[in-house]
Amino acid sequence: MVKWIAGLGNPGGKYEDNRHNVGFMAVDRMAERWDLRWRADAKCRAYVAEGRAPNGESVVLLKPQTYMNLSGESVKAYMNYYKLPLEDFIVIYDDMDTEVGQLRLRYKGSAGGHNGIKSIIQHVGTEEFKRVRIGISRPPQGMEVVHYVLSDFTKAERPLIEEVLDRATEAMEMALTESFDKVMAKFNSKKRS
């Protein structure tokens, strides 16, 4: 049984450090920690890293290269080609309703205005898949959402992001062997346990 984890973002250097790309940052951190190598997979228009996490569990990391709004095309193509069940899927993405530096894990829900999640829901045909939301906070008064999500984290926010990427990696490592309920109970708490 393979767990597959998709981080959402936009491809290309100009988006690399954007708030909207924190899903990519999370799976990059996992690949680095777990010593997995990225390769291009043309069939599903994604970068894929597969292998074993330190606990010996099989895992696949996915970075859709379709741009955020079409993330579902890549996820669905990967799922269909490799015949993977949706219950083993976890998606990681940015969330404006969660403070910078916070993690929020849930089983299901609406897209909440997130176009990447909206696309995945459309393509897989259900809202029932596990999510890890990484907080990016709301834009300052008067700043358009699109400009905000495509802006980089501030120097003051960087340490919070580094820490939350580590916590997301720990959470996903735990999710490979424990129930998602247990992972939620541990990592949804405000402070590090």
Mean of residue pLDDT? 95
Q: What is the percent of helical residues?
A: 25-40%
CATH homologous group name: Peptidyl-tRNA hydrolase
Strand content: 15-25%
Site (Stabilizes the basic form of H active site to accept a proton): 94
Pfam families: Pept_tRNA_hydro (PF01195)
Catalytic activity: an N-acyl-L-alpha-aminoacyl-tRNA + H2O = an N-acyl-L-amino acid + a tRNA + H(+)
Binding site for tRNA: 15, 67, 69, 115
Question: Any overview of this molecule?
Answer:
With 193 residues, this protein is of the alpha/beta class. It has one domain (3-187): Peptidyl-tRNA hydrolase (Rossmann fold, 3-Layer(aba) Sandwich), CATH 3.40.50.1470. 34% of the residues lie in helices and 20% in strands. The relative contact order is 0.18. Keywords: Cytoplasm, Hydrolase, RNA-binding, tRNA-binding. It catalyses: an N-acyl-L-alpha-aminoacyl-tRNA + H2O = an N-acyl-L-amino acid + a tRNA + H(+). Its main location: cytoplasm.
In summary, what is this structure?
With 193 residues, the chain is an alpha/beta fold. It has 6 helices and 7 strands; from the N terminus they run βαβββαββαβααα.
